[in-house]
Specification:
122 residues, mainly beta, 4-stranded antiparallel beta sheet, 11 strands, 48% strand
C-alpha cells in the first residue's frame, strides 16, 4: 500500500483546509486510517483515527470539535476536515494505515504517506 497526502497549504487563523489521503493497492478497506502531525522542533503527535468501515472515530483533545476524520473506501481515500485553524495547528500532516483499526499508537501503523504541510498564520 502506498499513501499520498495532499491538501495542505497556507491559511489564516480561523480558516479551513481539507486534507486528502489517497491509497494505492486493493486492501485499503481492511486497514484503520489515522492522521498524525509534527510541528517544527516537536515530536510527532496523534491527530485522529477511524475504523476500517469508517463508523467510529477518535480525535485528539487538541482538535476535537474542529477536525473531523472520514474515509471513502470505494475511492480508497481518507480525509481530514480542519476548521477553526490556529497557529498551533501548523505542522507537517501525515496519513497512515494500520491493521488493527482505530488506534492512537503510531507504532501500530505500517504504512505512512509523505506528509503535507499546513501553515496557519495569525
Amino acid at each position: 500500500v502506498q499513501l499520498q497526502a495532499s491538501g495542505g497549504g497556507l491559511v489564516q487563523a480561523g480558516g479551513s483546509l481539507r486534507l486528502t489521503c489517497t491509497a494505492s493497492g486493493r486492501t485499503f478497506s481492511t486497514y484503520g486510517l489515522g492522521w498524525f502531525r509534527q510541528a517544527p522542533g516537536k515530536e510527532r503527535e496523534f491527530v485522529a483515527a477511524v475504523t476500517r468501515d469508517g463508523d467510529t472515530s477518535d480525535h485528539a483533545d487538541s482538535v476535537k470539535g474542529r477536525f473531523t476524520i472520514s474515509r471513502d473506501n470505494a475511492k480508497k481515500t481518507g480525509f481530514l476536515q480542519m476548521n477553526s485553524l490556529n497557529p498551533d495547528d501548523t505542522a507537517l500532516y501525515y496519513c497512515a494505515m494500520n491493521p488493527y483499526g482505530r488506534t492512537r499508537n503510531a507504532a501500530s501503523y505500517n504504512y505512512w504517506g509523505q506528509g503535507t504541510l499546513v501553515t496557519v498564520s495569525s
